[in-house]
Specification:
Number of strands of chain A: 11
Oligomer: homodimer
Order of helices and strands of chain A: HHEHEHEHEHEEHEHEHHHHEHEEHH
Shape of chain A: globular
Organism (chains A, B): Azospirillum rugosum
Family (chains A, B): Belongs to the amidase family.
Pfam family, one (chains A, B): Amidase
Strand content of chain A: 5-15%
CATH architecture of chain A: Alpha-Beta Complex
Distance between the termini of chain A: 14 Å
Structural class of chain A: alpha/beta
CATH class of chain A: Alpha Beta
Protein name (chains A, B): Asp-tRNA(Asn)/Glu-tRNA(Gln) amidotransferase A subunit family amidase
CATH superfamily of chain A: Amidase signature (AS) domain
Largest interface: A-B, 41 and 41 residues
InterPro entries (chains A, B): Amidase, Amidase_dom, AS_sf
Chain lengths: ~450, ~450
Amino acid sequence: MTLSTLPACELVERLTRGGVTATEVAQSFLARIAECDSSIGAWQHLDPAEVLETARRLDAADVRGPLHGLPIAVKDIMDTHDMPTAYGSDLYRHHQPSWDAAVVAQLRSLGALVLGKTVTTEFAYFKPGKTANPWDVRRTPGGSSSGSAAAVAAGMAPIGLGSQTAASLIRPASYCGVVGFKPSFGRYSLAGIKPLAHSLDTLGWMARTVDDIDLIGKALSGRALTGLPATGIQGLRIGLVRTYEWPLAEPSTRNALETATELFRRGGATVSTVDLPEPFAAMADTHAGVMAFEAARALAFEHASASDQLSPQLRALLDKGLAIDESSYFRLQDAAVACRNLLRDLFSSYDVLLAPSAPGEAPTGLQATGDPAFSRMWAVLHVPCLTLPGLTGEEGMPVGIQLIGSYQCDDRLLCIAKGCMDALNGALSQSLPVERHRR
Amino acid sequence: MTLSTLPACELVERLTRGGVTATEVAQSFLARIAECDSSIGAWQHLDPAEVLETARRLDAADVRGPLHGLPIAVKDIMDTHDMPTAYGSDLYRHHQPSWDAAVVAQLRSLGALVLGKTVTTEFAYFKPGKTANPWDVRRTPGGSSSGSAAAVAAGMAPIGLGSQTAASLIRPASYCGVVGFKPSFGRYSLAGIKPLAHSLDTLGWMARTVDDIDLIGKALSGRALTGLPATGIQGLRIGLVRTYEWPLAEPSTRNALETATELFRRGGATVSTVDLPEPFAAMADTHAGVMAFEAARALAFEHASASDQLSPQLRALLDKGLAIDESSYFRLQDAAVACRNLLRDLFSSYDVLLAPSAPGEAPTGLQATGDPAFSRMWAVLHVPCLTLPGLTGEEGMPVGIQLIGSYQCDDRLLCIAKGCMDALNGALSQSLPVERHRR
């Protein structure tokens, strides 16, 4: 087993105990990238010599951080002082930020090694970059965190940083068969991340295990990297939420939810169907309106000065946003607040909600990144969400299932997700996506 | 009367009706700047030739925006694609952003003319820039929006953009004798404004009249520039909140509140004392803790890579923030949420709250920008705040009084503030600060 197949927690263990060096780990991931990225195209910027130089410097330093040498892939919507950052737009092709985004600076302070910048859609909206799905290169990896999802899935990085405004973490993670995590809104600093919609934008990340997701959360929170307790799912109260978008769910997603329900029940959890009250029916549209209104403000400069260099779909979003009047926007925000309160009450009866991550398997074609419908509601409700891999669809592609926690109860969600992933993996005895992809 | 003494609303009226040109208005303000800025030092970047060139281009354009040629001063914490932006730090002395901050792009799209960048404290925290108070150059103008406050007070710009995380709009506006407005948290896009604390940072602005404040709010909201109704203050229920910081209030501030109370009563309002419940006693400290925790994340890059180039007071803030553990931070946030709910209930009995804007007159000396104590609580409570000029202290310097509205009821606050300002001005028959300063 090469180093690049190991999960982040095990890499960190070996790196900090001195079993392996940052240089060896970097070499392993660079070899994996050289082996498979020509067909996947996950990286927007990657300079192997620079990576090795940084790894050697880390190894030579007197003090080793708790994430010493851990390679991370950084979505190219996040600023890096030493690598160009183009935000997925030709407008910023040669843009070189003067700083690191807060998340990058924090992880680097702890010893993490930035491998490079991963492909994002244009300004984290819809227009795809060059990345293909590692499981089938004729299919989209999803977006907007396309490159980070593909890199983690293909074993080119153990951790991929991303961000979500609509579905930009959960959907690509589902399509690429990795764990994707969108924390509660507002939990982590977005300094140095290009804004799209200020009441929705959320930093998150992807990995191949729930423990690896937890590792990065603890690191960013400045907590000890103690690991997640294995509590299992015995007695867990799971609410199955098909959502008002259910008609969009394809057989692959319907089957995945059924299989998960069956496996969680076998593991001792109770799974009962939750019919969301009527106000939730409007939440996907509420999200879309809020996002358009705010994006038209956040990208006011680009829209006013270089509209012809924006994609038609982005221009349409910004025009839509400018056409929404402020009082309508406030009504949308009020409706979201009302549903946040209803959802909070719901969590007195359920420990976690189970819902679709995406309509189905990754669609064929690289001209679009798939439908965000199944994430919009949770995004505007600000709750933590996590998609688990392990299940596959009718054509053998990954299909995620989404777990949703109560606002600001991110730790509890991760704990539950670990139990759920064990229940899925134990029953399925399935290999990790990265290994399967190698075959 | 020269053009530079006119309030923004009247300038806009003349500019859009064609009575004067953007070039003539720009020339008038540039003349005023040439006349008085050598002793005040409000500007971080100002290029008169560039300003006149832009004004001529605006005048020559086929289409005139609703803010055609209105000069604005932009705090140097906000990015401008055509002017350097140093964030008040030597670290970014030669920094040239690639974009305009959203607020700048929006106002420019409507025809506004950016005169230049105004002095900010270091990263909008405490270390002062070069600006002096226009009423007495031995005194601080307050901070962090020091240059914008001084520029508006001295008639060098009709509108000054600023931002507030603790007291950065209200305090300098109070010290400089202008109207300062901090909208509800989250109301306007912060894209392109250097973050300091993400759950507190708020865009705001300063002007010489409440109508001018309203003009910019309507413009940024994409609403028609219809003007504020003159509703008066007859029957208005005003709650006088001395706050738990009252022991810090100097005689000048105590007298200003007494005078205001008397004048508002004469105008037909009822003014009754509000004793805030005990949980509010912790809010100033709650604010300080939240700010430190979040600033340590937002400035992680600068702290990690160039700590020696930060001021001792900023380093102390960031070190304090890193020493706060995440669970303590969440407890602070929970306490703030509880007080926000209490405050919302309070507004069923009062139309507006009246409170100190600052401890007193602007302190002597330019080594510090004064105490933010009287704004911290309102900042962490996310409510809209406005400071009104017109009253003076024991040494003849301006002393503001602060009006506080209910969360997201910004329009109502501005309406009330207009009535209150009329009540103050009418009774005092006092000249505008800018005119007084000219004497």
